[in-house]
Structures are given as C-alpha cells and as structure tokens.
Design brief:
Elements lengths: L23 H14 L14 H31 L4 H20 L3 H7 L2 H8 L8 H9 L7 H14 L1 H13 L4 E3 L5 E3 L5 H5 L4 H17 L1 H21 L5 H6 L6 H12 L3 H13 L5 E2 L17 H11 L5 H12 L3 E2 L11 E3 L7 E3 L8 H22 L2 H4 L3 H22 L3 H38 L4 H15 L4 E2 L21 H18 L5 H11 L5 H8 L7 H21 L1
Helix pairs in contact: 1-2, 2-3, 3-7, 8-11, 11-20, 13-20, 14-25, 15-16, 15-17, 15-19, 17-19, 17-23, 19-20, 19-22, 20-21, 20-22, 20-25, 22-25, 23-24
Length: 596
C-alpha cells in the first residue's frame, strides 16, 4: 500500500508534456534562444515615447519572448509538480527563475517609459493602427502609473523578485517533501500511508476513531515544524508589505485589489454579509452532530458524508463521463473539447511519490490546459475537484481561442467563477439523475459542504489574511500571534457546542494560498457569481448560455467586475452573496427533512 513512484504507473494516467516540448533538448534550445535574444530590448531604451511604431515594435518583441518564456516555465513547473524532490526538475525551475530575474532587470525601463509619455501624445499613440492590438494592455499599464517607480527603482524590485517570492517554495518543499506523516492502521487492520493528499481520504471515513487519529497524527507533524512554518509565513507577509509600501499603496489589501479594479468595499462587503449570516452554519453543525450520533462535534467530523450507507467508488474514467454529462447545457463544442482533452492526457491523475498535493489547472498560450489531480476513487469530493479544474481548463481554452496572447490571461477573480460554475452544474445534474432519498441527501449534503467550504471557510481565511497583514503593517508577526488570531476566528465561525481542538490553531500554517496574498476571497466571490450564473443557465433563461460562453471567451480583455456584469451578475452589490447564503439555508432545510 505504498504510494507508487511515477515509473510504476502507466503513461495513460499521466499528462503528456510533449505538447509543450518534444524533449528536454528542445526545452534547452528555447531557453538558450531566450538567453541570447532578450538583451536586444536595449534597442528601444529611451525611444518608446518617440513614436507609436517604436512602442509597438517593443511590445511585439516582448510578446515574442513572453510566449517562449511562458511555455518554458510551464513545462519546468509541471515537471516539478510531478516530483518535488527531483534535482533535475528543481534545477530547471531555478534556471528559469534566475533568467526571469535577469529579464526583469533588462526590461525595467519599459513600463516607466510608457508611463512617462504625456497624455496628449499617448492619446495620439493609442489610436494609431500600429497599436490596435495593444490598446487594452496599454490602458491597464497606464492605470498603474501612480504605483510604478523610476527605472532604477524598478530595476531593484526586479532584482529582488526571486528572493521575495521564495517563501512559497520553502513552504512547498517542507510540506510536500520533507515532512513525514507516517502510516495509519485503518478499519480493516491494514497500514495506509498518511500524506498531504490522503489526509482528506481519512477524514471522510465512517470510523470516528480513525478520523481522530488521522487528525492528531497529521497535526503532530505540523506542530513539530510550527516555528519554521510560522517564520516562513511571517516573512511572506513582510514581503507583501514591502511591495505595497514600495509601490505607494495605502495597504497590502489595496495593493492586491487595485490591479483587478476591485474596490476594498467588495472585500469588506463579503466579510460583512457572511458574518451576518452564520446562524444557518451553526444549525448545520448541529444537524451534523445529531446525524452522526456524536456527543460533540470536532473539526475532523465535518467532512464525512452524513449518509453513511452510501459509499463512493467512482473510477477516474467514470468521473470524466459524469462531469461531461453534467456540462451538456454548455453546448457541443464545450463538452467535445473537454472529453477529447481528457482522452489525450491533459490530466495527471493519481498520487505518486513526491508529487504536489491537491489539484490545479495550468495553461500556456497555444498549449493544452493541463490538470493535476491526486484522484481517489473513494473520495466523492474528487469528482467535484475534477469538475472544478475542468472549469479552469476550459476557461483557458476558450480565452486562448478568442483573445490575443496579451489579452487572454484572465485574473484569478474570474477563474474561480468558471471552476465553481462547473461544480454547480454537476450538483444540478446529479440531483436530476436520482430520486433515491439517500442519494439525494448525499448530494445535497455535498453541495452544503461545498458552500460551507468555499463561502464560509474562505471568508474566514480572508478575514485572517486581512488581520495578519494589518498587524505586520504596524507590529510584528510571531507564532503566538498567528495562533491567537486564528483561534479568535475559529471561535467566531463555529458554533458554541463545536469542540475546537488546540491542534486546529495550527491550521493557518498549512494553507498554501496564504502565500498568495488576498487570493482566497476570490473563492468566496467566485462561488457567489457562479451560483447566480448557473441558476440562469439551468433555469433556461434566454441568452444565458451565450452570455456565459462570452464570459469564458473574454479572458483578460476587461476588468473582472465589468466582465461579470456583462455576463449577468453585479458583484459590487451584496445580492449574489446573499443569494448563495439563501441557497445554503434552503438546501439545509431539504437535508433536515431527509435526515431527521
């Protein structure tokens, strides 16, 4: 029952990276080409404000490089995700990161020169046919003018980028490679490895003692490394504060939201709306305690399905077909492309030694949008994870097909809408397929848990991020500060009769997304927008499918709030969040009727 090595699983279960590079030799050729070519950027130094032609030529040169750089990094990062301990893969990622630092230094003059063009001259440039394909990109660049520094200052920031971003790598290496969680004896008396990936599988087991042992053993390893983990997270936050102050933002939160043109009021409005509607969540915890027959509820009891008689054993191929069937309302092109991609090895399916935990979708222009999974047949949530990552991948596919390279890359704010939308359609499909009360209870329970995990839990995370950044902006972060502040939030977001085990205070040290500042709130806004858009599609509203596909095709060609408004949802109001909270309460009522 050891976790297999990569060599022990068939190629058909692995992604096929030959779509990126036929072999490592070709990767090296492109790497050397970029090394030799990027210094040509100096040909345009001091000349960008002279003519629209000069500016267009510089941008096109940068684009030629970026296309190759994106693919080089994509290949190297996917290989490293396969095995984080592989020294060859680590070296390639290090090579590309070092090259990116050098390129960032060389290109440091470009944005400041664009910013320095006076408004009257820029107005003439922007209507010149030579810059027709660059108008959106240039508008976004000019908008950042108050936060772009002088060329020497930009050069210094570029030189420090790799060092400032290193805490994420340290965290990943520690948690994915170095930390060892041992084995557990399961209900049948067999030894099973406990890993970052298998931890979730243990938490859905019906055996309450096994869940408890998995929780305690898992967090014992985190406790042994808590000071290192706290130091790593603290310095990541310090780096966020440094960057925000260096670029003249009033706060790290404003710095994170400004590029997407998202007002701080949207972030605060999310927290306020969720904080004001915690009563149904507490009601759900009580239902869970009663349905499981527990005297008290612990965190490790919140993932096991409430319908004990139904077990999940869905093969990967079966999961693909269920997801594709659920997405039929989006039309033939969508489902045909997704099915064919899965057959042609877009996805790396199963856990192997050293492989990155969790799941993600990753794309580069003109290449397949790859999906990393650690699929478990007995974890029903993995069916939803597949639908989720497929949403990201198809968003990338449509955006690539419809936009130029410089406008295809959509922000995370929009990405989480596409992924969660697929989960909503999957739930609708599964409920339509069954009238069995137990199965319906199982699926409804799954949707409730999804909203709980994505809206309530991610909002709690968002509060934590805001708190720790505010502390660092005026004081200092320590292990005790992290644990104390996180415990306060746990106490607020969980019911009074919910037992908060002391180990749970360490949870804040194991969340990878905290190394991407103010990322997690987008899950919460994403599910709210996704619920609104999916309800339009399943309700057969005229034009709803076309509007949603238009959203996917738009890529990064507009700011996220405007893009969503065009698709039919206004995230500047609390309405989408409140609608999702009402869905949670409505589903809770259905589940109570089925279980009690």
């Amino acid at each position: 029952m050891e976790v297999p090595t990569r060599a022990e699983i068939p190629d058909s279960d692995k992604w096929d990276l030959s779509y990126l590079f036929a072999d490592v030799g070709k990767w090296r050729e492109d790497f050397v080409w970029v090394q030799r070519t990027y210094p040509r950027i100096k040909e345009w130094k001091g000349k960008l404000g002279q003519s629209a032609k000069n500016l267009a030529e510089c941008l096109e040169f940068e684009k030629t490089l970026d296309l190759k750089i994106e693919r080089l990094y994509h290949f190297a990062s996917l290989q490293l995700a396969e095995d984080g301990a592989n020294t060859e893969y680590l070296a390639r990622v290090g090579q590309i990161q070092n090259l990116l630092t050098q390129i960032g230094e060389a290109f440091a003059f470009v944005v400041p020169e664009i910013q320095a063009i006076d408004d009257q001259t820029f107005a003439k440039f922007i209507v010149d046919p030579a810059l027709a394909d660059w108008r959106i990109r240039l508008h976004k660049v000019r908008r950042l003018k108050p936060h772009v520094l002088s060329e020497p200052e930009e050069r210094i920031l570029a030189l420090g980028a790799a060092a400032l971003n290193g805490y994420d790598d340290t965290f990943s290496q520690l948690t994915d490679v170095d930390m060892r969680f041992g084995v557990l004896v399961d209900e049948a008396g067999g030894e099973k490895p406990l890993t970052q990936s298998s931890f979730g599988s243990f938490l859905v087991r019906l055996d309450a003692d096994l869940r408890k042992r998995a929780f305690q053993q898992f967090y014992a390893e985190f406790q042994d490394h808590q000071y290192t983990l706290a130091s790593s997270l603290a310095y990541s936050v310090k780096a966020d504060v440094f960057r925000a102050r260096a670029r003249n933002y009033r706060s790290t939160l404003e710095a994170a939201l400004f590029p997407d043109d998202v007002p701080v009021s949207v972030y605060d409005g999310l927290v306020k709306a969720v904080r004001g509607n915690l009563a149904p969540l507490f009601r759900y915890f009580e239902l869970r305690r009663r349905a499981l027959g527990l005297k008290e509820l612990h965190h490790y009891d919140t993932y096991v399905p409430l319908v004990a008689e139904i077990e999940s054993h869905i093969s990967f191929d079966e999961a693909v077909e269920k997801v594709v069937s659920a997405l039929q309302p989006l039309g033939k092109e969508y489902v045909d492309v997704l099915r064919e991609g899965m057959r042609n090895r877009w996805c790396d399916r199963y856990e192997t030694k050293g492989k990155r935990s969790g799941a993600f979708s990753s794309g580069s222009y003109g290449a397949p949008p790859y999906i990393l999974m650690n699929y478990k047949e007995d974890v029903f949530a993995d069916l939803y994870t597949l639908a989720h990552e497929a949403g990201h991948s198809m968003h990338t596919w449509f955006a690539q097909k419809s936009q130029t390279f410089q406008d295809y890359d959509y922000p995370i704010f929009l990405a989480e809408v596409a992924s969660t939308f697929n989960e909503e359609l999957l739930t609708h499909y599964l409920l339509e397929q069954t009238r069995d009360p137990k199965m319906r209870a199982y699926i409804i329970n799954r949707q409730i848990d999804d909203i709980r995990g994505t809206l309530f839990r991610q909002t709690m995370f968002a509060e934590f991020e805001k708190i720790i950044h505010q502390i660092e902006e005026s004081d200092a972060l320590t292990l005790d500060v992290f644990k104390t502040e996180y415990h306060k939030l746990l106490a607020a977001y969980f019911a009074e009769n919910f037992v908060l085990d002391p180990q749970l205070d360490l949870e804040c040290l194991r969340i990878p997304h905290f190394y991407s500042a103010f990322y997690v709130y987008k899950y919460a806004t994403g599910i709210s927008a996704a619920v609104a858009l999916s309800q339009r599609v399943v309700g057969n509203e005229p034009g709803a499918v076309e509007a949603y596909l238009g959203f996917l095709k738009s890529g990064g060609s507009n700011f996220p709030l405007a893009t969503l408004k065009d698709a039919g949802v206004d995230m500047t109001t609390p309405a989408p969040i409140e609608s999702t909270l009402r869905l949670f309460e409505r589903r809770l009522g259905e589940l109570e009727g089925l279980l009690l």
